[in-house]
Input
Amino acid sequence: IDTVSYSNVPAGEELTLQGILMDKETGEALEIDGETVTSELTFTPESTEGTVDVEFTFNATEAAGKTLVVFESLYYGEEEIVSHRDLASQEQTLVLPSVSTTAANPELGNQTGLAKAEASITDTAEYTNLIAGETFTIRGTLMDQETGEELLIDDKPVTAEAEFTPEETSGTTELTFTFNAEALAGKTLVVFEEILYKDQIIASHRDISSDPQSIYFPQIGTSATDGEDGDQEILADSEVTIKDTVSYENLIPGASYLLKGVLMDQETGTELLLDGNAVTAETAFTPEERSGSVEVVFTLDGSSLAGKSLVVFETLYYVDADGTQREICSHKDIDDAGQTVHLSETPPEVPEEPTETPSVSNPVKTGDDTPILLYLGIGAGALVLAGTLTFLYLHRRKQKDNQ
Output
């Protein structure tokens, strides 16, 4: 509402006030949805001086953080008779506050949420165009990004509220949420904030897709297989390889992580011990995307484990710049079929095939290993013997005929 005071105008005559909102920063008319914001009022003054209100109604969400100046012109008929256009005029100026927020886990100093009973989120709100020395209220609500609705814990929304008094028109203030996050693995939460002055909302930041306002709760799932053939049945021999493929969600690209796995005896529900030691493996990695997969490989002597079912338990750690490891989530389900491999008895040895040379009396067949020269020699000998016998037979007969 722009209250316009006038003087020296003709009483009883119809006048028109035309107003327009200006963006002080650019010196140009404010545009909302591609159109300037204007207002017009026709009135008939009863006296030569007085006041009248010109009201502007518009969508101010696009103007958050801007400083607006009202320009007014007074018309008598079609003739402009006076105007007030001064970008530096304090009386014509209206500031629109703005707020933008950045959410973080105070324990890790980043946007990774921890799915535990007492989780915390600290939201840093940066504000502009507030009135220094006045008392304001900042109020926040946690939203479920998947549903776009308020996050409910025990059927109640998770909210936080605090009062603050800015020393300057622009600055920052913090708001902390504390809640039970045990059931939030795999979820993404978004912080919605609003600033109130005298119980009126004067600025808000509500963007369900805003990355700076988001907290990501990691989740992992695992699939254990025989490192040799990819199934879940493994021969219980002296060299067993188990490959666990771990899928992950909601990690920070470029950050350092460490997966630590341990083999569990499904029957006892306790860690598998070989020579008194647990069987463990670990893999360090740096994800390029928020979701993906990585492998953890176990190598062990399984010769004494025939008949056992082993379950892989995995724990994911965030690794700080100084090397400190902080547990952020795990997958530990002793009944999970996907995490389980079964070790079976080694099958009986198959007898080796005989290596002796077959008897020459065996018939020649394709693939026979008997040397071909042997058979040729036998054939040649038979022909010689037959020729000799024929010669002797004919020779004796000739002698007998001569007698």
